[in-house]
Design a protein that fits this description.
It is a single chain. The chain is α/β, with parallel strands linked by helices. It has one domain: 3-Layer(aba) Sandwich (Rossmann fold), CATH 3.40.50.300. It contains 6 helices and 7 strands, in the order αββαββαβαβαβα. The protein has a 7-stranded mixed beta sheet, sandwiched between helices. The two termini are 21 Å apart. The relative contact order is 0.18. Bound molecules: guanosine-5'-diphosphate. Guanosine-5'-diphosphate binds next to helix 2.
Length: 218
Amino acid sequence: MASAPQPATNDDDAARTEFGRWLFAQECRFVAGAATPDALPAPDLPEIAFAGRSNVGKSSLVNALTGRKTLARVSITPGRTQQLNFFELGGRLVLVDLPGYGYSQAGKAKAAEWSALARRYLKGRPNLRRVCLLIDSRLGPGEQDRATMAAMDAAAVNYQAVLTKADKLEADALAKILPALKAELAGHVAAHPEVMVTSARDGTGIAPLRAALATLAG
Ligand code: GDP
């Protein structure tokens, strides 16, 4: 059996890309769906959480990263993903699909309950290495994204903006949006300076995102 490549610790882009490709091709298994704090799994492995408004393309992105079609369910109705879903990747990293914020079919009270759990998770998770904050590249950050950024700054949770659905955007539109977003993020203490531009549909940015996230694996 071929031995596992080691995480790249230097600036060698090719090695980082290869390690990302390898890690995200490993077995990815569902470990827990938590609807209450006591249902959160033990914080044993480094975790990366995915956050964003409902319909931002979160399930599609997690599926594209792991090369699976049905890992995270792609919702037909916005807000259907209601709990924190934990997926273990190759015994090295855990991917956490947070509930999308925004309108929830379950009703307002229930939506507030879920977001309280997500907020609590973001604040108190010792093994949380990074939050990917997904932002629709056509819409830019909204009020709730900004509130989430502020909460993560306050809790000193590292986060990185990931633009989704880039295939829907003309290159010149992206060239306008990116500098503005980077300038905004520069004012946030816990934000990663690099913005990832992705499309689950055409695969743009998926390999670089895998490479970036794989550097956080244990
Ligand atoms: P979630 O609610 O954030 O998990 O979003 P989903 O992954 O369920 O996607 C919401 C909608 O956006 C679906 O209709 C997807 O087909 C669409 N979508 C997701 N990713 C992309 C993308 O990269 N490009 C395009 N054009 N559409 C996408």
